[in-house]
Amino acid sequence: MKLKLISLLTFIxxxxxxxxxxxxxxxxxGESFGAYSVGTNxxxxxxxxxxxxxxxxxxxxxxxxxxxxxxxIRYGLLMERLEILLDGTFANVEDQLLRGGTQTTSNFSxxxxxxxxxxxxxxxxxxxxxxxxxxxxxxxxxxxPQWSDxxxxxxxxxxxxxxxxxxxxxxxxxxxxxxxxxIITQHNIGSKWVFVxxxxxxxxxxxFPAYAGIFTLTHSIYKQTGIFAEFQTYISDLYSDEILRxxxxxxxxxxxxxxxxGLVNFKDSPxxxxxGIGVSYRIDMHDSDEYIFKNxxxxxxxxxxx
Length: 306
Fold this sequence. Notes:
Layout: H1 2-13, E1 42-55, E2 63-76, E3 82-99, E4 102-123, H2 125-132, H3 139-143, E5 153-162, E6 177-189, E7 193-202, E8 210-222, E9 225-236, E10 241-253, E11 256-265, E12 271-284, H4 296-305
Antiparallel strand pairs: 1-2, 1-12, 2-3, 3-4, 4-5, 5-6, 6-7, 7-8, 8-9, 9-10, 10-11, 11-12
Helix pairs in contact: 1-4
Protein name: Phenol_MetA_deg superfamily protein
Organism: Psychroflexus torquis (strain ATCC 700755 / CIP 106069 / ACAM 623)
Keywords: Signal
């Protein structure tokens, strides 16, 4: 019995749960996706309300005021590494055009974006670190930053943009469905810093493909409070820009997060700003952990102990 206990403790030290966390793991308040999923059988809602303004230098282009309803629905499907998500924004828009001393106002509402996608974790450096275990001969390698810490977690994302009917946000000739793809990396730097990057190809098969890079740095300042800064570059024949975002997120409970955020850009056509609030809530139905085994012997030992 004692031998079995020692073997079981050895097994526990050489296995690691792949994705699931005890507290909510939200993509808000930034626009980037993290590399990790919410965990199997976890259903998560991330929503926000934002007020924004686009002001144009040219008198021929109307200034635009938007009230935006942002949403993400995420679900951990089949395995820890896989997540399915619906991501989008519904906007109420008011356009104002001043011409010849007369101001003309028009209003419309529709989906600014609506994308159904899947995300899969290709590589998690933390799993290999857990399998390798601590270095018993070097305090330095266990406690000081190493070159291996620069290796991020890597995920891939594939999605389908879905906007139907007479949608004023669609460009002329845009199909009702178009692809979207991304490579996602995530560095967890110590216990307080996280750096995420998204390299995105949006609608690459259409007449006006768009390419974007989003880079998000998050810092935990208190146990339940974090701040973030985010830079996004956006390249397209229809619209190109550089955007800076920032905000604060507060963990109100292990399944609830509240956030506030803002946005400014670096050009004057349009000159943009946005302020918003949001909430993330998860329904935690996670009932079993997925373990990574170093070899078949460890798997057999685990099954025997169970």
